[in-house]
Amino acid sequence: MPRNRIIVPDTIVIHYSATPVEKDFSVGDIDAMHRQRGFNKIGYHFYITKDGTVHKGRDTVERGVEMGAHVRGHNDHTIGICYEGGVTLAQPHIGHDTRTAEQTAAMVALIKQLQRQYRIKKIVGHRDLGPTQCPGFDVKSWWASVTAPPAAQPELTLVERIIQWLTSILSRGR
Q1: pLDDT value, residue 2
Q2: Distance in angstroms (rounded) separating the CA atoms of residues 8 and 116
Q3: CB 12 within 8 A of CB 114
Q4: What is the CATH number of the domain that holds 151?
Q5: Cα 55 from chain centroid?
Q6: Which domain holds residue 143?
Q7: pLDDT in the model for residue 104
């Protein structure tokens, strides 16, 4: 890591691997793909496989992270998280949200950990920063739904409370 630039991230960018969800694509596979494209190693900081395993890519340190290679013009201030999948064999050029429940849970936990560690507030999708379908879903609205407080239950009117009370008394008598 000595020759690699350390940056202080202020944004997390979500990506997909653009590989068919029906096939496995390991962290080694994505590292090899990036090296074939001229990178010195995997461009993402984290890669989440379909089973929810979080694999480390680019280095992260206490005060910053190694500059990634995942979104042109924004690598100097972002952390890249990529999930395995994003397209299907039937539609290899159309992005979809193919995250498994395990990937989604791992992604939420990882984002929250990185937010605490680096005080990051901005979570975006690759498509929010350039002309792409990646990551196959609207990250901003998804993250807003993840972090939204639970909806408050509307307070019952006096009549509704009396009906509930009467119903509970009548059901005990059966």
Answers
A1: 42
A2: 13
A3: yes
A4: 3.40.80.10
A5: 13
A6: 6-172
A7: 97
